[in-house]
Amino acid sequence: FRKHDYVYDEHFDCYLCPSGEILKYSTTNKEGYREYKSPKHTCATCSFLSQCTESKDHQKVVTRHIWQNYMEEADHLRHHKDVKPIYAKRKETIERVFADAKEKHGMRWTTLRGLKKLSMQVMLTFAAMNLKKIANWTWQGPRMA
Fold first, then answer.
1. Is the pLDDT of residue 66 over 70?
2. What per-residue confidence (pLDDT) applies to 145?
3. Where does residue 46 rank: exposed (0-12), middle (13-18), buried (19+ CB within 10 A)?
4. By C-alpha distance, which of 48, 41, 42 is closest to 6?
5. Contacts of 125 (CB under 8 A, 6+ apart)
6. DSSP secondary structure of 114-136
7. Can you tell me whether residue 37 is helix, strand or coil?
8. What pTM was estimated for this model as a whole?
9. Which residues contact 106 (CB under 8 A, 6 or more apart)?
């Protein structure tokens, strides 16, 4: 079985396997994934064992990222009828800004080392881009109706 074959229960913070067993929360690993494990003694006698897992100790482990709820909500909102027109404009606004930063402002590669120095370069680059944008708005005189 794949991860999507298991049902996540938000209230009890557990997964339900196709045979009805509960996979309880076990631990959170270093990568930020919560691990839900099935009971070994129950899975050893399960009729779905060959479809479920091939582990030697007869235990299924399903992982879920700690921010998965937020990712699901963002994905849900992205498909909402009111948000679709705004999301379509992303390629004209947000993506274009990053493309300009990459092509015109040297953000394709960096010669700096370390997060602090790189963060400083990025902030200065985007501050300069914002100043350019403000200057362009200021220099465009009033528009005729």
1. yes
2. 63
3. buried
4. 48
5. 101, 105, 106, 107
6. SHHHHHHHHHHHHHHHHHHHHHH
7. strand
8. 0.60
9. 125
Q: Which of the residue ranges 38-52, 54-68, 119-133 would you say has the lowest mean pLDDT?
A: 38-52
Residue 103, token pair as written in the block = 């092509």
SS3 content of the chain, % helix, strand, coil (to 5): 45, 15, 40
The phi, psi pair for 30, rounded to 5°, reads -65, -25
The SS3 of residue 113 is coil
The pLDDT of residue 90: 85
Residue with tokens 């196709």: 18
| Beta bridge partners of residue 27, listed in sequence order | 35
Inform me whether the pLDDT recorded for 73 exceeds 80: yes
- What the block records as the tokens of 82 is 């009111």
* Residue 1 near residue 52 (C-beta atoms within 8 A): yes
